[in-house]
Structures are given as C-alpha cells and as structure tokens.
Amino acid sequence: MGCFPRMLRFWTALLLVTWWCCIHAAPALAGLAPSRPSGVTGITSVRDADMLSVRRALEHKVVAQKLEDYGLSPGQAEQRLASLSDAELHQLASATRGLPTGGDGAGALISVLIIILLVIVILKLLNKDIVVR
User: Fold this and answer.
1) In whole angstroms, how far apart are CA 47 and each of 10, 43, 80, 88, 90?
2) Residue 106: per-residue pLDDT
C-alpha cells in the first residue's frame, strides 16, 4: 500500500463511496412499454380483419408483380378491394392465408452461413481439427 500516497487513497475512497451512494439512491427503473393502450385495437369487425389480411398479402413482392403483369396498378387493386362484398373478401382473405409471409429466404441462408462460420472459428480457437470426409 505504500506505492500510493495517503491523500490519493483518501480522495479515491471518498469518490468511490460518493459514487456508489448516488447509484444506490437513484436506481434505474425498467419495464415493458405497451405497444398500444390495452383493449384498443384497430380491427373492429371481421371485414376489417379480412381487409388487413388481404392488404398484407398484396404487399408481398410476388403478388404485387403478378398484379402488375395482369395490368392492375396498386390503386386499382385497392379500389376493387373496397368494392368487394363481405363474403368475397372473406374468401379472398382465406386464400391469402396460405401465401408465404417472409422474404425470399436470403436472410435464413445468411444466418446459417454465419452459424457455420462461428462454429469453425470456435473450433479453431480450441485447437480442434476439422476433418470433412
């Protein structure tokens, strides 16, 4: 303990005690924030739920491209959706539930490659041999 001057030890200890007391006196508060007020939803009827399902399907790249190939712009598709009856809209929403909701799979492929790379790096760091037969 002789390598540090007495005054430096005193002020360092005082600073640390003060710091720890301040942290203890004012702890951080954390919690989950709700995404929207409880009990409030934008979907008020079955038609709204079906319309939301169909709109999500129309946002898919493949569906949007097919509609453009048939000569239907996004604005025209929205007008036709608004003019559908409840039964027709429900039938269309039921058909869109089978469509893929994700992208083209590039994210999954990249994730698998990163996991394989991490396994190889960990094995190399542990001095293990990698033999592929």
Assistant:
1) 73, 9, 15, 10, 7
2) 73
